[in-house]
């Protein structure tokens, strides 16, 4: 009888020890600062584990939420003035469509197999692009080293508007920390 209890105790201790070893490993998965980031632009169609809203670190959740809430896509003052001077919805649609055609030229070298135009912070420095449009994705520097941020431009035929999509992925796996679509703000208060 004593031997049976001894075996059960050993098994119980082994199970508890395994949990204490596995938990810290899982907790540091997205906090490993020794990883090198290699920027890629063609991983949008891979299946990911979606961890949005799950139990990730508080600081990471806060940074991801800031990206989700405060990302923006706006006209520059010049483009806003040109757009607002147009007096018909048809001309405004044509203006947006012409901007989309310019984006397809400015970012042609980063077009993927799904006809999306990937971009990196460096490529947004294109002077022609900056003449018309502003893209803001907060906390990009926070994710460098531990995460990949994939971004691309696309055009939505239903809304007749340009948007960019972003996805924040952990380097230690295929976990998707957050993602979203940000449409060009066409309101009068741009």
Automatic annotation (TrEMBL):
Keywords, ordered alphabetically: Signal
UniProt keyword Signal, yes or no: yes
Origin, by domain of life? Answer: Bacteria
What span is annotated as the signal peptide, if there is one?
Answer: 1-28
Its protein name is: Lipoprotein
Native organism: [Mycoplasma] phocae
């Amino acid at each position: 009888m004593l031997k049976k209890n001894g075996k059960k105790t050993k098994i119980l201790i082994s199970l508890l020890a395994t949990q204490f070893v596995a938990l810290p490993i899982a907790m540091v998965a997205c906090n490993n600062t020794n990883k090198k980031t290699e920027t890629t632009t063609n991983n949008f169609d891979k299946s990911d584990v979606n961890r949005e809203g799950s139990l990730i670190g508080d600081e990471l959740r806060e940074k991801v939420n800031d990206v989700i809430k405060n990302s923006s896509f706006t006209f520059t003052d010049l483009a806003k003035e040109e757009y607002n001077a147009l007096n018909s919805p048809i001309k405004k649609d044509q203006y947006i469509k012409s901007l989309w055609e310019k984006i397809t030229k400015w970012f042609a070298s980063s077009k993927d197999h799904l006809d999306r135009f990937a971009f990196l912070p460096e490529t947004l420095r294109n002077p022609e692009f900056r003449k018309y449009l502003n893209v803001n994705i907060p906390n990009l520097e926070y994710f460098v080293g531990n995460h990949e941020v994939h971004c691309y431009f696309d055009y939505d035929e239903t809304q007749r508007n340009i948007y960019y999509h972003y996805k924040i992925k952990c380097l230690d796996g295929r976990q998707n920390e957050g993602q979203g679509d940000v449409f060009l703000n066409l309101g009068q208060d741009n």
